[in-house]
Specification:
The chain has 479 residues and is α+β, with helices and mostly antiparallel strands. The chain is built from 14 helices and twelve strands. The strands form five sheets. The protein has a three-stranded antiparallel beta sheet with strand order 4-3-9. It has a three-stranded antiparallel beta sheet with strand order 5-6-8, with no helix packed on it. A two-stranded antiparallel sheet has the order 1-7. α3 crosses α4 and α9 runs antiparallel to α11. It is flat and about 140 Å long. The chain starts with a helix and ends in a 23-residue tail after the last helix.
């Protein structure tokens, strides 16, 4: 029998337990995933090699295709844009630093959670076999260029059936398109009942686009992973290719015209003139002896193989050069596109230095501004991997994802580094003041030290009393 007090205490304990419960979250469970379907191997359609020549109209058309979520032409455009030095450099400044970042796998708790985290380390850690740095570089490139990126998961069941191992691969974005009615992405894909050991077995038997079915790309379904920074139309919100397309066109066509103009500026024409009254040709239309000799002299001068020559009296030789200053327009267009490319991909043109028109800034300040885009990319990548890869893996192998470990990039914090450097300088100045006072024969008091420490903005350590000076032994103490 329970008394009223017992019931009341039980209710109070339950209320207290509920009050301390975790925040609401969606728990993924093993039953959500269809093993028979998800264990089929999926491959992209064949990607034929191709080279493209772009006009302004073609570039604008590809940009418009990006706007509506058709990625075949935008994918080719992004590849061609990478041949431009300014865009190539800006894109690699955004992508390359992440290659050297470390990755940590953090356990969700203790006990079983630590065991799960240890298994995840082998798959998703810095040396994991499930997520390679090459795969992530391709995904981040797609994310930067197109504002969205896609990946596919293929599974391997261990021989003893104890685990299902994941393998993440970047998905070619040219086969993806946005369905405006369904409000989701679709793609062409080829499925195999068994994993093809020979890559040649994956080659299509018919032209691309005829036999491959269209399947929806659903993030977190155990098959597909979508990396996006916004919920609605991410391919419009943060795609560098949208502003970068015409920036590339501006720089590319300016460089082309500049190169053409350099031919006229760098190749002067040599023209000879005979004395007045000297005939150039005879009655039959052939050059006269004087004209032929003059032409030979001018040809020798123009070829730079003849260092000397004799010019007949009254004749002259002129160099005709291109006095146009149109090259200044091409130079400005090229510089403008270079700065614009840096701003689009990095958020700043400071990486160009003074040549790019950027103000002189402290390198730590510049690093902090330039990495804002990189940090945004990493936050998107971390969330996509956590909800699209690690949570389904944990649910399939351990029943649910309540103890799913967390995968994080170890990104250096420039603000924290500057704070530490500033504190070190101020603390060194405080200690120097204390040492200078002692060297001057003064005895720092706790109050004086506290005021000096406050002026430097550092904590005041406790003072150590000076050791008493040794006294000379008395006569009785002498041996």
């Amino acid at each position: 029998m329970f008394s009223g007090a017992d019931v009341r205490r039980a209710v109070e304990r339950e209320i207290e337990r509920l009050g301390k419960s975790r925040k609401a979250r969606v728990v993924r469970e093993r039953a959500e995933f269809d093993p028979s379907e998800l264990r089929r191997y999926v491959a992209s359609p064949f990607v034929p090699p191709a080279a493209y020549s772009w006009s302004i109209e073609d570039i604008v058309s590809a940009r418009d295709q990006q706007m509506v979520g058709r990625f075949r032409l935008p994918a080719r455009l992004a590849e061609s844009m990478g041949t431009n030095p300014a865009i190539f450099t800006a894109r690699n400044v955004r992508l390359a630093p992440v290659q050297g970042l470390d990755v940590t796998i953090t356990s969700a708790g203790a006990g079983k959670a630590d065991t799960i985290a240890a298994e995840a380390e082998a798959l998703f850690g810095p040396k994991g076999i499930a997520i390679s740095s090459e795969t992530m570089t391709t995904i981040r490139k797609h994310l930067a260029d197109h504002g969205v990126a896609f990946a596919v998961i293929n599974r391997t069941v261990r021989a003893d059936g104890s685990r299902i191992d994941y393998m993440l691969s970047a998905w070619p974005i040219e086969f993806v398109w946005w369905h405006p009615v369904a409000q989701r992405y679709y793609t062409q894909a080829r499925f195999f009942d068994d994993t093809p050991d020979d890559p040649a077995m994956r080659a299509p038997t018919m032209p691309t686009g005829i036999v491959e079915p269209m399947v929806p790309i659903i993030h977190g379904d155990g098959r597909w992973v979508v990396f996006a920074k916004s919920e609605i139309l991410p391919h419009r919100d943060d795609a560098a290719i949208l502003p970068g397309a015409l920036v590339w066109a501006t720089g590319a066509f300016a460089d082309r015209d500049w190169s053409k103009g350099s031919a006229t500026h760098g190749n002067a024409k040599v023209v000879g003139e005979l004395p007045e009254g000297t005939a150039l040709s005879d009655e039959e239309g052939n050059l006269t002896t004087e004209a032929a000799a003059m032409l030979q002299l001018v040809s020798a001068v123009a070829s730079q193989d003849q260092p000397v020559g004799i010019r007949p009296a009254g004749s002259k030789i002129d160099y005709i050069t291109n006095p146009s200053r149109a090259w200044e327009v091409w130079k400005e267009l090229s510089l403008k596109s270079e700065k614009a490319a840096a701003r689009i991909y990095l958020g700043t043109d400071g990486v160009l230095g003074a040549a790019g028109g950027a103000p002189g800034v402290d390198i730590s300040e510049l690093f902090g501004v330039a990495t804002s885009k990189i940090q945004s990319d990493l936050a998107c990548i971390e969330k996509g991997l956590q909800t699209g890869v690690i949570s389904p893996w944990c649910a399939e192998n351990f029943g649910d994802d309540k103890l799913a470990p967390v995968r994080k990039y170890q990104f250096p914090d420039p603000d924290q580094s500057r704070v530490r450097e500033d504190f070190a300088k101020r603390n060194a100045a405080f200690l120097a003041d204390v040492k200078a006072a002692r060297d001057a024969g003064l005895q720092p008091t706790p109050d004086w030290c506290a005021r000096v420490a406050e002026a430097h903005g550092v904590p005041c350590p406790p003072l150590v009393a000076d050791a008493p000076a040794p006294t000379a032994p008395t006569a009785q103490e002498s041996p």
